[in-house]
Design goal:
With 384 residues, the protein is an alpha/beta fold. The protein contains 14 helices and 16 strands. Strands 14-13-10-11-12-15-16 form a seven-stranded mixed beta sheet. Strands 3-2-1-4-5 form a five-stranded parallel beta sheet. It has a four-stranded antiparallel beta sheet with strand order 6-9-7-8, sandwiched between helices. Helix 3 packs antiparallel against helix 5 and helix 12 runs parallel beside helix 14. The protein is globular, with a radius of gyration of 21 Å. The mean pLDDT is 91.
């Protein structure tokens, strides 16, 4: 099959997640097309056609997609929450243009994008989540909230969300008042829940895809950074955990979820309890773990007969984002190795065992070279 006749996958976004999906799609024999209004790292790939629609409006992006899809049959996938919101807004038009949108129906998308709504849904369906509080009630002196608490933006979208932390650990009423006020000034409504931080926790990431009633899933441990940093994983290792996988499967089946997803789960090792934190209704930053271990979620979605479950791995694959990992291990603010929380020898061994990389690819060196410039700049800052 020549390049022009290969089926297309239109990938909305140009982040590190988009890069992982692009490389997977190219390896599957698809013809990936990256589309974004930003110019992030994936734009440096040579495994896809790229379209940087600089400063384009919603309407302009939609018209471009309609024009492209009218001439070339293709699938559509989003790799960030803002692009999921775009799909929600224009679903009816997009469904008429593409072979398939590889995401669940809008009602499920909107629930996953709104942490408060998702937490309430979990409570109604018996899915274990941290206890939720109303922010107005928890400010009352008579309220029985148990500290510590965790504050997160309740809705995943761009704009003001970037001006507040992804999550804030609050230990007393004074901190609560301070952060409620900070969220308010940013125009962001916080979701207030009990904080699990301070317990002996393991962070799990469950990658999954569901088509019809068939579902595939794999489990990984977020080894770094530690849970209390409430940050994206920089060193993630495939690891079998049947209880966590079963919880993820039950959650997706209850949602009647269709498409690719990642579920974040925290396990309290002392009590044995597992808590669903959120569902990312799209590929996620460590998506490359799947193709590297035979758990190819994109293949499962577009070519179920081509997915061979006998070739999947449950352990042994270790994903590394070197620049982020260096920051979490050696920065003055949170350096886990620098502070002695992780022994230097154990850190070196973990690097030697890494076999899947966020940026590096011999067949696609551009994004890795681009990331090196950022890495050198960061190292210069760290050693000053």
């Amino acid at each position: 099959m020549d390049q022009a006749s290969r089926p297309h996958l239109v990938i909305l976004g140009s982040s590190l997640t988009a890069l992982a999906v692009t490389r997977d799609a190219a390896n599957l024999g698809l013809r990936p097309l990256l589309v974004d209004t930003d110019n992030d790292v994936a734009m440096a790939t040579r495994r896809a056609d790229v379209r940087h629609l600089r400063n384009a409006t919603d309407g302009e992006v939609l018209e471009w997609l309609k024009t492209h899809a009218a001439t070339t049959p293709c699938w559509l996938i989003a790799t960030s929450d803002p692009w999921l919101h775009f799909i929600v807004r224009h679903r009816a038009v997009l469904e008429g243009c593409f072979i398939e949108i590889l995401h669940p129906r809008n009602s499920v998308l909107e629930m996953c994008l709104d942490k408060r709504t998702f937490s309430e849904w979990c409570g109604r369906h018996g899915v274990p989540v941290p206890r939720q509080y109303e922010s107005a009630q928890v400010m009352s002196v008579t309220h029985d909230a148990q500290y510590p608490l965790l504050l997160r933006p309740h809705r995943a979208s761009g704009g003001a969300i970037a001006s507040v932390p992804k999550a804030v650990h609050v230990r007393d009423s004074a901190q609560l008042i301070e952060w409620i006020d900070a969220f308010s000034r940013a125009g962001v409504t916080p979701l207030v829940t009990e904080s699990l931080l301070g317990r002996r926790l393991t962070q799990y990431s469950v990658g999954a895809a569901r088509r019809g009633s068939s579902l595939v899933a794999f489990v990984a441990i977020k080894q770094r950074p530690v849970p209390e940093l409430c940050a994206v994983g920089s060193y993630v290792q495939l690891a079998r955990q049947d209880e966590v996988e079963a919880l993820a499967r039950r959650t997706l089946e209850l949602l009647d979820y269709q498409g690719i997803a990642e579920l974040e789960v925290l396990r309290d090792e002392d009590s044995g309890e597992n808590f669903v934190i959120e569902v990312n209704a799209r590929p996620w930053i460590q998506y490359g773990l799947g193709p590297a271990s035979g758990n190819d979620l994109l293949r499962f979605m577009i070519d179920p007969p081509g997915f061979d479950a006998r070739r999947t791995l449950a352990t042994g694959t270790r994903w590394l984002n070197m620049s982020a990992d260096l920051y979490y291990c050696f920065s003055r603010s949170v350096g886990l190795v620098r502070s002695g929380r992780i022994p230097f020898g154990a850190y070196v061994v973990s690097l030697l065992r890494a076999n899947t990389f966020a940026y590096h690819s011999w067949s696609d060196p551009g994004p890795g070279l681009r990331s090196l410039r950022r890495l050198f700049a960061m190292l210069g800052t760290m050693i000053r």
